[in-house]
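Write out this protein's structure.
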Amino acid sequence: MSLFKKIFSTQKKESLDKGLEKTKTSFFSKLGKAVVGKSKVDDEVLDSLEEVLVSSDVGVNTTLKIIERIEARVNRDKYLGVQELNLILREEIAGLLSETNSGDETDYSIPKDKKPYVIMVVGVNGVGKTTTIGKLAYQFKKKGLKVVLGAADTFRAAAIDQLQVWADRVDVPIVRQEMGSDPASVAFDTLSSAVSQNADVVIIDTAGRLHNKVNLMNELTKVKRVMQKVVADTPHDVLLVLDGSTGQNAFEQAKQFTKATEVTSLAVTKLDGTAKGGVVIGISDEFQIPVKYIGVGEGIEDLQVFNKMEFVDSFFSNKA
């Protein structure tokens, strides 16, 4: 299993292990019940495994892909014992994630040829969007990068104020206007300010409303168009933040936002408080959009760069 022989940051790995504890406990409890009394992987075991994966919020389509992969292994190897099932699952889930998350990123890297590097953050209210922005700003600043935040969620005074709190905490500049201001105007001012300050990274918060998809689409399109007047080809990344604890609802949010705008990466938050961590696997596969960050705790260091090998290793390690 050289695939998994990788030296992880001890602190990051411990945080990830702890963050996935509820998901692991739930998953392996269900899996144990599904294979009790069985000696080999047969149709009955596969049917039970399918139920376990679906009930663990991996998603129906992704579950079927995993089952197909395991069926192919059973047909090829002729006999597989249930004691090998964990290892097989580990390998096949890693393989599935590899198809979307091509690289094993380990730090908060940005392209050197794009300055400022502009990230537009989207997602419904309450998923941890502003907190994710604050933690991202912290990580980029820790790398020695100059960061500017833009409070373009102007429909809620609380959103502007919350982003201000994070800007103060991380000690990075923020561009804001009054509640009700034109979001595109805030984005324009943010990029103009970032260029004048020779900033490395710009993170733009946007409104999290899904009740009218057409309005959302028009608004995000306008924000993009106005930003491109200052820096061409922006935004460089459209980051969709999803609350992992909502399980299947996160799938629906991803579906709506990918229809409204071109999402290029995902952040899945609040994995530490839920048994629904399997949603990371399903969303990554279903939408073929790389998961870039995961939230595994409330601490400022608990937003991690998603690394598929670390995730799978933690998911299948130290099980009871």
